[in-house]
Amino acid sequence: MSREYCKIFAAEARAAPGFGEVPEIIPLYLIYRPANNIPYATLEEDLGKPLESYCSREWGCAGAVTASSSSEAMQKCQTFQHWLYQWTNGSFLVTDLAGVDWKMTDVQIATKLRGYQGLKESCFPALLDRFASSHQCNAYCELLGLTPLKGPEVAHPQAKAKGSKSPSAGRKGSQLSPQPQKKGLPSPQGTRKSAASSKAAPQASEPVAAQLLGQPPTQEEGSKAQGMR
């Protein structure tokens, strides 16, 4: 997972003019050895030199290396951390980046929530808050247009969300959804019922009008009147 995130970061970094070399997390292979007592093992490239630490969770806030005194590889590893923290909305972080030149290995992860991206447990959740408060942006963070992790806007990220409006909130009058307007239209069944009742009214009133005029109703009309009663 860390390698895939790093590959996405590398693609965006290479698109930025003047960014230069990009760190790479080397692949880790799982091999199966059926004749061994421990059948499963991991295998990775031998970098040939002692590993140099670029980002460590043991530095903490006070022991973090300043951007001015760090190497280019160290600054870009910190930029990768900043980019990943912002990409995952503060839920995931790669730490303990160590390697030779631009190849990194033996990384660790920190997650905010248990079960993030299928992980079984939460790893160092306090490190995420510590990173946000201690990270110092460098020139490569600015080159990628990353927003600073410090300041009042970052401390209260939900303030802007409360002020945002839904696209449908500004609609008025004729801009509203047409569905509520369908309620005012008469139902076809109601129209048929009213038409049927209007046709039945003259038939029922004919024998009544005949009685009022003193004319005896015919046999057919009388049977209709009795049926109506």
UniProtKB/TrEMBL annotation:
Signal sequence extent: none
GO molecular function list: ATP binding; protein serine/threonine kinase activity
Keyword Transferase: yes
Organism domain of life: Eukaryota
The entry's keywords: Disulfide bond, Immunoglobulin domain, Kinase, Serine/threonine-protein kinase, Transferase
Residue segments, region Disordered: 154-229
InterPro entries: a-kinase_dom (IPR004166), Kinase-like_dom_sf (IPR011009)
Alpha-type protein kinase domain location: 1-149
Pfam families in UniProt: Alpha_kinase
Gene3D superfamilies per the UniProt record, alphabetical: MHCK/EF2 kinase
GO cellular component, one term: nucleus
Coiled coil: none
GO biological process, one term: cardiac muscle cell development
Ranges annotated as biased composition (Low complexity): 193-205
PANTHER family in alphabetical order: ALPHA-PROTEIN KINASE 2-RELATED, ALPHA-PROTEIN KINASE 3
Name of the featured protein: Alpha-type protein kinase domain-containing protein
Origin species: Colobus angolensis palliatus
